[in-house]
Amino acid sequence: xxxxxxxxxxxxxxxxxxxxxxxxxxxxxxxxxxxxxxxxxxxxxxxxxxxxxxxxxxxxxxxxxxxxxxxxxxxxxxxxxxxxxxxxxxxxxxxxxxxxxxxxxxxxxxxxxxxxxxxxxxxxxxxxxxxxxxxxxxxxxxxxxxxxxxxxxxxxxxxxxxxxxxxxxxxxxxxxxxxxxxxxxxxxxxxxxxxxxxxxxxxxxxxxxxxxxxx
Amino acid sequence: xxxxxxxxxxxxxxxxxxxxxxxxxxxxxxxxxxxxxxxxxxxxxxxxxxxxxxxxxxxxxxxxxxxxxxxxxxxxxxxxxxxxxxxxxxxxxxxxxxxxxxxxxxxxxxxxxxxxxxxxxxxxxxxxxxxxxxxxxxxxxxxxxxxxxxxxxxxxxxxxxxxxxxxxxxxxxxxxxxxxxxxxxxxxxxxxxxxxxxxxxxxxxxxxxxxxxxx
Lengths: 215, 215
Fold this sequence. Notes:
Two copies of one chain form a homodimer. Chain A is mostly helical.
């Protein structure tokens, strides 16, 4: 398959101007030059465009983060686990912009200790440690003296779910494909799960509270 | 307990200017006038301020939505289930600002049919129906021909979790308190669950992919 940039745009759904921007930024490899200011593109360009679009549109990644993920995919000495880590960590939350407040530091220490006690092996660099600590800070700032143990019922459920999700990732195809699946799966099912949980709350609330009058 | 606005601010952690704004907007009832431009506040003001803060800061609700939730709480003829519904629906997503695209309408119809097939009783007005359809639209726009059945494993888990959450809500105290719990629980554990799931993915990925090299 060989096509002009207009056809590449049509098949990928990415506007020509955006493709040109990705080409300038090096996120998509150059095509084969055919004439002055023209080039041919192929299957590999289509696949790369889809990956970049997943990272940008689904994952919300900026150009620099996308470049990091592409570099990890391109580094064939990097175990797949580490490539997936680069992609997951790029989803955020971003590193501290300012020194964290004392209650944030305290919550992080509590989350770290709790994860250790559960023997969850998670890198000290994981942004999700900070995300979880932020949740704890929010609860505590409301005046509720909570510890990370309030998360315990959720940890068990999340763990079961994640085990199945990781088992379902393709392992022997190109790393780019596994990364694509992981990013789509992480972001998409996060939103889906939140919506499903709210609807399930509604139906159980109907059973429990439909007839509850106050006063 | 009787206090000036400065003490109310200290005890609630809400700045005096914000309290005055809430008073003007009618979100907090007026205090007992004591002198020209002064008033006394009590326990009820503290509780109301905490609720407004949860709705605004945790739930991200605007003034109009907070007013709707407070009105539902104040209407003692309204069953608790409906009060909780007003609070949950206020969390969004907001109604359509423009007529939805054809693929959005198609996804909504698919989600509706799927929920019916699962016999989940969820109001046609639930914003979470739209949220779930939006997820499906996102997946399909990537070129993946998915149906709502991809959400099935998540529905089962979300349902189990929600059953326990609703059972844990206080039923016989003031409705305001139950609403507070529900909003905190919904928003806070949504974020916590997402962070836990990512960390669990990391640990299972380590087991499965640590040694997977490519090439």
